[in-house]
Each structure stands twice: as structure tokens, then as C-alpha cells.
Amino acid sequence: MGISMRSASLPTHPGELSVDFCSLQADTLQRYVDYHQLPLPSSATKDDLAIRVAAHFSETVTMFEDEKATIMSFLTYARATPATQPIKALGDAKRPRAATPDDAMTSGDDISNDSNRPSKKAKRKEKRYCICDGESFGAMIACDNNACSDRSNWYHMQCVGLETTPETCRELQHLPSWCLFRKPALSTTYGDMISHALRSMPRGEGTFKDICEYIEAQYESQLNWKLESDQRKSPVWKSSVRKILFSNSRFKRHAIIKGVFCLVPSTAA
Question: Any idea what DSSP says for residue 221?
């Protein structure tokens, strides 16, 4: 009595399963077999594949709800997956989660924060000068008289009809008659700025903070605002002022009051 190869090597389709695997396509069954590396003879037919898959499925899934969920997951994923790609184990495929109001709120917050967050620090506003209310450029002059109420303003030389720096501005109708011009802005050094600051202070004395506040108010557009790389993260011009106060012979520390600087009196010729 002869027995066929399929009948001898494969069990029959389990009858207790809620799904008939024989109704699936051969390539879907083959992907299941390949993924789980189920042994099959090379001459196995589609029915052989279905029986082998059903037997394996019956052995690994025992509860009805597990069986139902696993079948749905397998069928959904198998239909959406190209035959050239291996499929994941049953139930492992992650399904897209439906969006919730919380998700929408979070997403909206992220977009809002990104759009409102400045990419860089706001650029320092350019100060205006002169009778033309323009920006700082070219050769400029300003009053060096302590009594002048317009010391903070600088003037473009061409705007006030000058080619060279005069000693006074009595002949200019645009400016107060008591103004005394100091050097062009582009040639004003940090040492000059410190001197002007100390001369404007009571008794010609001031702290480092006082000096810096004066220099920033009077010479803001001429200062180097690039930050130092040290831990203080202070601008370059403040570091330069500090070094000059301690090293330049034009300035000295107060003999009694700590942290106060003053000008060194000039010796008579």
C-alpha cells in the first residue's frame, strides 16, 4: 500500500483553527515558512505550505483571542509587505497610532517654539549721529569741552563743511560756539577714552565700572563688542580698558581708595 510523500512527511490541516490557511496565496505562505525556517521538502505544493503553516500556527498560538489578533496582524502586514522583503514575526509589526488632541497640541507647540525662537542674538542697534542723523562712517569730530552739552554727539566732517580738524567751531553755525573739537573718531584710542572719562568725573577719579559706563555711553559705535574667549565672556573693549588702566603710565590707582583710578599729573616742562 503506497503512501504519498506529502501524506508521510506533513500533518493534516488542523481543524480547530478559525482560519483556513489553504485560502492564502502561495507567496504569502512561503514568506511565513521562510521567516520561521520551517522544514519542507523541495517538492512541497501550496497545500503542503498551508498545512505546515497551520500546524506551526496551531502549536505556537493556543488562546482564541491571541489567535485572532495574530492572524489579523499577519494578514495585514503580509499584504502590505513586498514579497522580496522578509516579514517580521507575527504580532511584531508596529501599527500607526491614531493622533490624539495631545499630539496635536504638542506638535503645535513645537512649531510655535521653533518659529518664535530667534536663530541668533539680536543685532545691536546702530546709533545715529550728526546733523544728518546718519550712521558712523568716515572722519568724524566731536566736542572735547567738559562744559559742552553735546559731547556725546559726533559729526561727519563733510556735513559741517570741514576738511581738517579746527581748534574751535566758532565759525560753524551748526554747532555750539563753545565747542572744542577732539581728534577724529577713528583715531580715538582706548587710552584717550579713559582720559576723557576720568576728566569728566568729580576730582578726576573713578572706578573701572564708572569708566566703562562713560566710555560705552560716549563711544558705543567705536567699541569692539566681540566677546573674549575667557570665562568672563566680556567684550574685547572692556578687557583692553582694564589692561590699559593697570599698565599705561598715564593712569594710576588711588593711593588710599581701593579700586579707584585717576590720571597721572603731567610734569611741567
Answer: G
- Domain assignment present for residue 209? The answer is yes
Q: How many CA atoms does the CB half-sphere of 26 hold within 13 Å?
A: 5
* Residue 210 reports pLDDT greater than 90: yes
Residues 6+ apart with CB under 8 A from 155: 129, 130, 131, 140, 141, 142, 174, 175
Range of the domain at 227: 190-263
DSSP run (H or E) holding 261 = strand 260-263
CA distance 57 to 78: 15
- Who contacts 130 (Cβ-Cβ below 8 Å, separation ≥6)? 140, 153, 154, 155, 156, 159
Together in a domain, 156 and 205: no
Looking at 42, 59, 79, the residue that finishes a domain is: 79
Show the DSSP H helices in the chain as ranges.
Answer: 5-9, 26-36, 46-60, 64-80, 101-116, 190-199, 208-219, 236-247
**pTM for this one?**
0.33
**For residue 135, what is the domain's CATH number?**
3.30.40.10
Q: In what order do the strands lie in the sheet with 251-253?
A: 205-207, 260-263, 251-253
Query: Of 174, 167, 178, whose CA–CA distance to 131 is shortest?
Result: 174
CB 254 within 8 A of CB 241: no
On whether both 216 and 252 belong to a single domain, the answer is yes
Residue 125 φ/ψ, nearest 5 degrees = -65, 135
211 and 255 housed in the same domain: yes
What is the tally of helices (H) and strands (E) in the chain? 8, 5
Reported as a single tens digit per residue, the pLDDT across 103-160 is 444 444 444 444 455 555 555 556 667 777 777 666 777 766 555 656 667 777 777 7
Count of domains forming the chain: 3
